[in-house]
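Before relying on records like the one below, remember that each one covers exactly one chain. Contacts with other chains, cofactors or solvent are not represented anywhere in the record.
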Amino acid sequence: MTLDIGPLRLATPLLLAPIAGHCDLAFRILCREQGGVGLASTDLLNSHAVLRGSPRSLELAATDPADDPCGMQLYGNWDDPLPEAACWALDRGARLIDINMGCPVDKVAKKNGGSLLLCDALGTVRLAARIVDAVRRHSGGRVPVTAKMRLGWDPERFVAPELARDLESAGIAAVTVHGRWTVQLFSGKADWARIGEVVSAVRSIPVIGNGDVTEPVHVAALMAASGCRGVMVGRGALRTPWIFRQAEALLRTGTAGPEPSFDQKVACIERHVDLLERHHSPEHLLHCMRSRVSWYGKTMGHVKALKEAVRTAASVGEIRTALRGWRGLEVREPVLGRSFRETPAG
């Protein structure tokens, strides 16, 4: 089951979202290795910062042959050098350029872009046309430009259907729609039916649905409810990077792939540590695992001691030692003093 976005064919219709602060190179490769990922994208990149060579932006934009196809997501407003930044991204391996029109965070949406672009649809379509033209010329037409948006700033301004249709006319090859309003941030419930209205508004480009996809069954449910042709998974992947593999199996066979065993989940965390050590600094590794172990723990039952050991680790060696100590503990009840059965994700 493939998904075509302009000239780019994805092996599956499942995409890892550019989750701000979380989708570094190590995590993108980890999700790809687990299986089922059609496309993964970088964290959002500031157009000015990439052009001036900001070290942080260079780290966020780093890619690798194991990270293919890689999308790069840019943000900025009508006055920013987004076309030039898009060409910069092409020169650094981007197989797809995505324009962020959905970030609701104040520091982005109040002045720098993101959901701000929903408030001036005409100006945003003109900006998109400039980016599409620059990318088409720079790549020889080989790289598509897409947009990720929300439904609108608030329920009184439901702009997504008309904006998506106009963006298609401007050359945008696909739109991803997060089924929330900007003012919601991440609260409340994603409106999948409204995503369906965007699907009905465009002529031929694929619409990719996003929002409240935390289990494999949600992928099929979102596609059925909205008619979208692809699904982007965000926060759900933080605790279950294997969700893409399970969802792909569900779409292909009607049955989700098996839940990893406890030891397989420990091995996944260990692999994440390996990738962080290979591609990032020791400081980033420690910071990342101290926060991410809580996400992993949501699917692993009563692992408070493991989470605490990782959070208080002073080195990567201490993290590895803590993880090794938990291998096989689901069958070693005397060590834990209780039955260690896995519990459903909370």
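DSSP finds 16 helices and eleven strands in the chain.
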